[in-house]
Amino acid sequence: MPSLPSLGLRHRSSRVKNAAPRPPQSRPLSVVDCAVYVDGHRLAGHWSHGEAIEEVRGRGTGFVWIGLHEPDEQQINGIAETFGLHELAVEDAVHAHQRPKLDRYDDSVFMVLKTVRYVANEKLTATSEIVESGELMAFVGHDFVITVRHGKHAGLGVVRRQLESDPEQLALGPAAVLHGVADHVVDSYLDVTEAIQGDIDTIEAEVFAPRTTIDAEQIYLMKREVLDLRRAVMPLAKPLKRLAEGYTPMVPEQVRSYFRDVDDHLTTVSERVVSFDELLTTLVDATLAKITLRQNTDMRKISAWVAIISTPTMIAGIYGMNFENMPETNTVFGYPVTLLVMLGCCIALFKIFRKNGWL
C-alpha cells in the first residue's frame, strides 16, 4: 500500500522529547499493548488506560492506542467507562461471533472485521480446517483507538511497528490506525486466496486427469471452507465503502482515499472467492460425472461376465433335468462335445464384449 501523505508535522514540544519513562505497571492479561502517540511518535514508558487518556487530553493533542486480546466483561468494563464506549458495541466486542460491520455512535465508531488464516494439511479429511477464522474489532474516537482481537492469529504487532516507523502516517490519528488494521486484514485475505488457488489447481488437475480417482468429499470440504471465507469477505465491502465516502467525520479526507484503495483490494479478493465457488461447483459436477461413468463401466463389465457365465449355466441346466429320452446323454462323445460347446460360447462372447469395450 502507498504511504499516506503528510499533513505537516508540528514541532514536537520539549515535553515529548524529554518525556521521562514511566515505571512498568501491572496490566490486565487481555491488554497486549497500551501506547500514547503525539505527532506520530510514541511516548516512552508504560501506561494504564486511564493514565494514557489523561496524558493525551492534558496535552490537547495525540491519541491512545490500546490493543486487547479476548477480554472478558470485567476486563473491558473499566476501559469502556473511561472512554465512553457504547454498551452494545462493548457486548459485541466481548462475545464476538459478529458479521463484518460498521456502527457509528455519538462520538465513536465501532468496526468489526473477520480475520482468516490458511492452514496447510498434508491430507484432507472430513474434520480438516483449511481456513481458520477469527475476529477483529476496533473502537475509534477523536483521541483513541481500541482494537480487540479474538483468535490465535492475526496479531497487530506488525501493523503497530509499521505505523510507528512512519510518523507522518501515524500523525493522522486514530483513522490512520483503522486504515492500517483494515489494510492488514485485507492483505491477509489475498494471501489466503493465493494459497487456496494452489489447492484448487491441484484438485482440478486430479479431476480431469485420465484414469484417476478423487473423492468428492475433498471438493465438498474445500467448498465449505471457501464459503466460510466468503462470509468473511463479502460483508466487509459496505463498511469500507462507507469509510471511503465520508461516513464519519473521524476519518479525514486524506485517509478516505486510502480506504478506497483497500476497497479495491477487497474487490479483487471478492472476485477470486466467487470464481473459487463457481469452479468448485464445476469440479463437483465433473467428479460426479466421472464417478457415474466409472460405475457404468463397472456395470457393463459385470453384465458381460454374467452373460458369459449364464451360457454354460443354461446348457448345464438343460442336461441336468435328467429326462430319459435325451439322445445326447447316451452317446460316447456327448459329455466332451457339450463341454466344448460351452467353452466355445464363452470364448465367442468374451471376444465380442472385448471388441465392444465392455471388458
Name the CATH homologous superfamily of the largest domain. CorA soluble domain-like
- DSSP summary, beta strand count: 7
CATH class of the largest domain: Alpha Beta
Largest sheet: 7 strands, mixed
Can you describe this structure?
The chain is α+β, with helices and mostly antiparallel strands and 359 residues long. It folds into 2 domains: 1-179, CorA soluble domain-like (Beta Polymerase, domain 2, 2-Layer Sandwich), CATH 3.30.460; 209-359, no CATH class. Helices cover 55% and strands 13% of the residues. It contains 11 helices and 7 strands. It has helices at residues 14-17, 49-59, 73-83, 87-95, 157-164, 167-170, 174-208, 216-233, 237-244, 253-319, 334-355; strands at 31-38, 41-42, 63-69, 101-104, 109-118, 131-140, 144-150. The chain has a 7-stranded mixed beta sheet, with helices on both faces. Strand 1 and strand 2 (41-42) form a beta hairpin. Helix 3 (73-83) packs antiparallel against helix 4 (87-95). The model is unreliable at 1-28 (pLDDT under 50). It is a multi-pass membrane protein.
Would you kindly provide a brief summary of this structure?
A seven-stranded mixed beta sheet has the order 2-1-3-7-6-5-4, sandwiched between helices. Helix content is 55%, strand content 13%.
Pick out its properties.
Beta Polymerase, domain 2; 11 helices; 359 residues; 2 domains; disordered N terminus; magnesium ion binding
Reconstruct the topology from this structure.
Elements: H1 14-17, E1 31-38, E2 41-42, H2 49-59, E3 63-69, H3 73-83, H4 87-95, E4 101-104, E5 109-118, E6 131-140, E7 144-150, H5 157-164, H6 167-170, H7 174-208, H8 216-233, H9 237-244, H10 253-319, H11 334-355
Parallel strand pairs: 3-7
Antiparallel strand pairs: 1-2, 1-3, 4-5, 5-6, 6-7
